[in-house]
Design a protein that fits this description.
Layout (H helix, E strand, L loop, with lengths): L14 H11 L9 H7 L2 H12 L27 H12 L6 H19 L7 H8 L1 H5 L19 E5 L3 H8 L10 H16 L6 E6 L4 E6 L10 E2 L22 H10 L13 H12 L3 H8 L2 E4 L2 E6 L4 H14 L4 H9 L6 H11 L1
Antiparallel strand pairs: 1-2, 2-3, 3-4, 5-6
Helix pairs in contact: 3-4, 3-5, 11-13, 12-14, 13-15, 14-15
């Protein structure tokens, strides 16, 4: 029988201590150092905390009364991480095998519940809308093609837009994320809250809108008649605007599953595909590979999607370059029949095809 390799000093520590070390150092590669560390740190609760830390939005409203100990326990501190560190942490997490769409959906559900409990507690709703909010899980269980997925690169005004009321006495405090009863003792707070709810129940006016984006795990509380702007949105996942994280390679290669594309659609507006929007080296290599391998379904799906580049904040359609058109024509001419890749380009991206290339694609596109 072979001798068991002795454990290192760190491997000999209790799992609870290893987990605490992991949360302090945030070294995502630590579990990969050994099977023992992997077993100690393979924990769904740890994963959820890491996702909350790395992917929660840093909007102004989240600066107070949001990252509570129950939502993000010590030693994790959301505001202690710089934008550069957050982007690096996001990129590292996204590349992990355990980082899946199903885990993100679970974290989004918890995030929305937490955001509503923190930020909508001084809003009142009609009974029907209150019932709708109480049943929010049924909507989160059925995220489908009817949900806003920013297919054209921009989000709409919300999948659910719910009118609400904020009493005038509370406007200043809620905007400042303060509790107007914080100076009172527990009994006085309860009495004040009961009086507040009594006033609410007899009112029919509305002065706020609560918007919820199901696919994006986002909520926004805005003025009733305010022009819609994408500001102060609570969202998970969110990436730093000027220093975004990178979309992982695992979402841009076979097997090209449905969940893979859904995850890709979730990340595409805010996480970058290419380093440079003009050179598009990464996406170009993927496109060339799909054409050569004759993988028409992922090719067609990607061509309909919008992505951002690291050096450009505005999402644009999947890049197509002259080398791609030339390769499509080459394969079509060698096959001697109508080419599906040419047909997809002509149908989906006609405006992006250079004038001098259109004739060749039309000839082979059937």
């Amino acid at each position: 029988m072979g001798h068991l390799q002795p454990r290192s000093a760190i491997e000999s520590l209790p799992a609870e201590v290893l987990q605490l070390i992991f949360l302090h150092c945030l070294e995502i590669n630590l579990p990969r150092a050994s099977p023992i560390l992997d077993r100690a740190l393979s924990n769904q609760v740890l994963y959820a905390w890491l996702i909350r830390l790395a992917f929660s939005s840093a909007n102004p409203g989240s600066q107070t009364d949001f990252f509570t100990p129950s939502f993000l326990p010590q030693p994790l501190d959301f505001w202690s991480i710089s934008e550069e560190e957050r982007a690096s942490l996001q990129t590292a997490i996204l590349s992990c095998k355990w980082c899946t769409l199903s885990l993100f959906r679970k974290c989004q559900r918890e995030y929305i519940h937490h955001a509503l409990s923190c930020k909508a507690k001084y809003l009142t709703f009609t009974p029907s809308y209150r019932d709708l909010l109480n049943n929010i899980d049924s909507f989160l269980d059925n995220i489908d093609e009817t949900c806003d997925k920013a297919v054209d690169g921009r989000k709409g005004k919300g999948d659910l837009v719910i009118p609400a009321q904020l009493l005038p006495d509370y406007t200043l405090h809620v905007n400042e994320d303060e509790n107007p009863h914080a100076h009172l003792d527990a009994q006085a707070q309860a009495q004040a809250q009961a009086q507040f709810q009594s006033q609410i129940s007899t009112s029919t006016s509305t002065d706020r809108k609560l918007a919820i984006w199901l696919h994006f795990g986002a909520i926004q509380i805005r003025e009733q008649h305010e022009v819609y702007y994408e500001n102060n949105i609570f969202r998970l996942p969110a990436s730093p605007i000027l220093n975004p994280a990178r979309i992982p390679d695992k979402l841009l290669s076979s097997p090209w599953s449905t969940s893979q594309f859904e995850f890709l659609q979730l990340l595409a507006p805010d996480f970058y595909l290419d380093e440079d929007e003009h050179e598009a080296e990464r996406s170009s290599a993927i496109t060339m590979r799909l054409i050569r391998r004759r993988q028409i379904k992922p090719f067609a799906t990607l061509l309909r999607m919008y992505f951002r580049a690291a050096n450009c904040r505005v999402p644009a359609r999947w890049p197509l370059l002259s080398v791609h058109f030339a390769l499509i024509v080459k394969y079509a001419e060698s096959n001697g029949h109508a080419d599906p890749f040419a047909r997809v380009v002509l149908d989906e991206r006609w405006d992006d095809v250079p004038v001098d290339v259109r004739e060749g694609l039309l000839r082979v596109g059937g």
